[in-house]
Design a protein that fits this description.
The complex is a heterodimer. Chain A is α/β, with parallel strands linked by helices. Chain A has nine helices and twelve strands. In chain A, helix 3 packs parallel to helix 5 and helix 4 packs across helix 5. In chain B, helix 3 packs across helix 6. Chain B starts with a helix and ends in a 9-residue tail after the last helix. Classes of the chains: A alpha/beta, B mainly alpha. The interface between A and B is medium-sized, with 31 and 22 residues. Bound molecules: adenosine-5'-triphosphate (ATP) and magnesium ion (MG).
Chain lengths: 265, 269
């Protein structure tokens, strides 16, 4: 997998993160993080609980505004105003436009409970992207088929299993034609037997050449799906490289410790 | 026997009774308009209370805490009168000569042209607004609590997909809030229904006023005593009316709850 793709250097940077810092109160969660996700690249973020993986992912679409540092999507830097704690989104139109091209998938699915699965998938394309209903509906049904829950289109989220809900959430993200997919531990809320079906869908998307940033606890999966793995430790990138480098020829003692703990979990 | 029926039929369809029947529309109008306004004020109040800007938050909090403490009867007397005089004062500053205003310190309004005559329709609207303002303060509290019950992750997802703050508020937050607010709002609605019995305080010839008049001992010079003090019978009719309204309201709220709870409440699917 990783070898079948050319080295990223020449490809277009879809997500470029520069020197991110973020604190909650006295707790400094991110202490200066930079990385770039290039066109077609799958990047996995790993690290122990509390190392700041979710916070980093949420800074990409500004659900958390970093105290310092910048994020550029497709070469366009997200405008921020103020500094430190007071830093905030500088241009509402810009952030809404950029967010409408970032497909976020949450650990707890976060499907809108009052809408059917089909309505969930059609919501952002209709309301935010203002595309034509007929076209969106056809695409939404195709996406639901693709993730294997076409038959559930008119059900409500609460009527689906966790695995089905997460696949619906993935279809919702796909239907906005995202430039990049952001996954925050998409399978940690699921029973092991339901995990498989979701992982299969994510693998399918990776093989299609979609750009993805994935936070995961599943080292096996990170190894099989990623082009690059980033290990976060105490708010800094402790080690990064191809799966073979990171898992096969681990340099950092901390990462070795983490991988040992993970494999015995 | 047929004579009796004919007698009672013409008694119950005489002009006064017909006016009484018609006055039910005032009560129903005040309840529906007051209820709608209470929800509107409640939505505004709750949104203010949730605002990120301190002054707006203060307005929302002040409204819900102060107005909830004022007895509805007092507010009912105070608001329409205060509103009427405020309008008259505004008009007076435009139409009355300054001398007239200066001289007529004791009289109200300062000059005849500024007098605003309030008839039943005007009082009815003012009464509905009063009901809306008083019970909107309760609705503010109910809705504010309900807004906090909506799962936070779903609001975050809406933002993450590029919805504007207004779209998140309206399409997800308020849409899902109803399920949590309806039990509280149905209580507020019943209080509003009960408070409609205060309409006669505002010179509106409402169902209570007419029941009182019709039930009083009735003596006609040509017929003699038609009936003695029958007020309790008339009040009984009002009891039955209010109980019917309660039953219908319960049915309506159950239906709304099923609609609002679709997908959210398991039994509503
Ligand atoms: N909104 C917040 N307010 C205060 N503290 C927060 C907030 N969000 C995260 N934190 C703290 O920041 C630290 C990093 O959190 P984060 O969720 O990014 O970790 P994570 O690497 O995703 O962990 P996990 O693997 O458990 O999901 C944690 O200590 C957490 O308690
Ligand atoms: Mg996390």
């Amino acid at each position: 997998m990783a070898q079948s793709k050319p080295a990223g250097a020449a490809k277009w940077p879809v997500v470029a993160i520069h020197d991110l810092h973020k604190s909650f109160g006295d707790l400094e969660v991110l202490k200066g993080i930079s990385f770039t996700a290039r066109e077609g690249e799958v990047i996995s973020l790993i690290g122990s609980s509390g190392s700041g993986k979710s916070t980093l992912l949420r800074c990409i679409n500004m659900l958390e505004v970093p105290d310092q540092g910048n994020v550029a999507i497709d070469g366009e830097e997200i405008e921020l105003r103020g500094s430190g704690k007071r830093r905030h989104i500088g241009n509402e139109d810009q952030i809404r436009r950029i967010r409408s091209e970032l497909g976020m998938v949450f650990q707890s699915f976060n499907l809108w409970a009052h809408m059917t699965i089909l309505e969930n998938v059609m919501e952002a394309p209709l309301i935010v992207q203002r595309r034509a209903r007929a076209e969106v509906e056809a695409e939404a049904l195709a996406m639901l088929d693709k993730v294997g829950i076409g038959a559930k289109a008119s059900n409500y989220p609460s009527q689906l299993s966790g695995g089905q809900q997460q696949r619906a959430a993935i279809a919702r993200a796909l239907c906005i034609n995202p430039r990049v997919m952001l996954f925050d531990e998409p399978t940690s809320a699921l029973d092991p037997e339901l995990e498989v079906e979701v992982l299969r869908v994510i693998k399918l998307l990776a093989d299609e050449g979609r750009t993805m940033v994935l936070v995961t606890h599943d080292m096996e999966f990170a190894r099989s799906v990623s082009d690059r793995v980033i290990f976060l430790h105490q708010g800094l990138i402790e080690e990064e490289g191809t799966p073979d480098q990171v898992f096969g020829a681990t340099k950092s003692a901390r990462l070795r410790q983490f991988l040992n703990a993970a494999s015995h979990a | 026997m047929t004579d009796d029926i004919a007698y009672w039929f013409s008694y119950l369809t005489n002009g006064k009774h017909l006016t009484w029947y018609a006055s039910f529309q005032f009560t129903i109008f005040a309840a529906l308009a007051g209820g709608t306004l209470a929800v509107v004020f409640g939505l505004i109040g709750a949104t203010l209370k949730n605002s990120r800007f301190f002054p707006l938050r203060l307005i929302g909090t002040t409204y819900s805490s102060i107005v909830r403490g004022v007895p509805d009867v007092l507010f009912f007397l105070f608001f329409p009168l205060a509103f009427e005089q405020a309008v008259e004062w505004l008009v007076a500053t435009q139409v009355c000569s300054p001398e007239a205003i200066a001289v007529q310190t004791a009289a109200w309004p300062p000059c005849k042209e500024a007098n605003w005559f309030l008839g039943t329709p005007e009082y009815l609207i003012l009464a509905s607004v009063s009901l809306g303002l008083v019970y909107g303060a309760f609705a503010t509290n109910v809705i504010h609590g309900a807004l906090r019950s909506v799962p936070h992750g779903q609001l975050e997802a809406a933002r993450a997909y590029g919805m504007s703050a207004a779209q998140v508020l309206w399409r997800v937050h308020i849409r899902q809030m109803w399920v949590y607010a309806l039990p509280g709002l149905s209580n507020v609605w019943m209080l509003i229904v009960k408070a409609t019995s205060l309409l006669s305080l505002l010179q509106i010839a409402d169902i209570v006023l007419w029941a009182d008049r019709l039930g009083a001992p009735n003596f006609l010079p040509t017929v003699g005593l038609v009936h003695e003090d029958w007020r309790w019978r008339y009040y009984l009719v009002l009891f039955v009316f209010y109980i019917l309204v309660t039953l219908i309201s319960e049915k309506a709220f159950n239906a709304i709850m099923r609609r609002a709870g679709r997908g959210i409440l398991s039994e509503a699917q």
